[in-house]
Amino acid sequence: MSANYPAIRALDVGAQVDDYVIIEPIARGGYGVLYRAEHPLHGEVAFKAIYDAVSQTVEGQRRFFDEARLTGQVEHENIVSFIDCGTIDHPEALPGLYIVTELLSGVDLQTYVEQKGPLDMHSMLLVSRQLADALDAIHDAGFVHRDLKPENVFLDVDEHDVVRVKLLDFGLARPSSSDGRRRRRHTPAGVIVGTPEFMAPEQVLNGPSGAATDLYAFGLVIYYALAGVPPFRGGQQDVLVAQVKTTPPPLASRYGCAAVDAFIDKALSKWPSQRFRRAGELHEALAQALSQSKAAKSGR
Description:
Blueprint: E1 16-17, E2 20-29, E3 32-39, E4 43-50, H1 58-71, E5 82-88, E6 96-102, E7 106-108, H2 109-116, H3 121-140, E8 143-144, E9 153-157, E10 163-167, E11 174-175, H4 201-204, H5 211-227, H6 236-245, H7 258-267, H8 279-298
Antiparallel strand pairs: 1-2, 2-3, 3-4, 4-6, 5-6, 7-9, 8-11, 9-10
């Protein structure tokens, strides 16, 4: 967020925006605040108030609503359910936008790994399979997420302690340009959009984004979940250059073996055409590689 943008003033408990009554803030970030809210029809929901500079322009708001409607077109058990969106015009807060989704209970993958360490084989495959299903559903619908990272992979726990993966945050989602054609540019030239540690080379170079872009990020998420750290670390510029030019280091964990390293090399190929074709294919290759790793270590 721009340094000269006004400080965000949180909505008070009990404040009402349209039909949503604020219950409590859940999280606060550089671009807004996430609240627990109550709706007379939907019950308790997640209400995200967005206050970035783009949301203050007519064109920015138009794009926001277009993208929100696009997101709502894909319904899948492993994608957070879109409920509503609108504008904030309330005396207690800056003018802004809001998006409403289902309310989840659990933690994101980044928080889980930070607190408990890398995933074991069973947990990794559980997360990978569900995330692959979500990505294939998105890609089959004709768009690309463009911001896949551990923070946007939520581990939702139901009343029976069953973990279900939910893919979050479609703020950067766009129609796929996997056919090689450039779509109308929404991002100013030279502006990097995304999280450097989880960006594909073509994103760094501001090129066309297709399903392969998400699959590269999927490989980065898997690497992070198995190793506890992303493959490329350091200053932002160093990480961006590494995404384009550097081969990922071998996976230095209990899973490290030739089969797993070969999987990582393919998933994180700098060339989109050399990566896996679908998320489901990537998951199956991961399962085979981890199985070979387990067999190799048990035979020692």
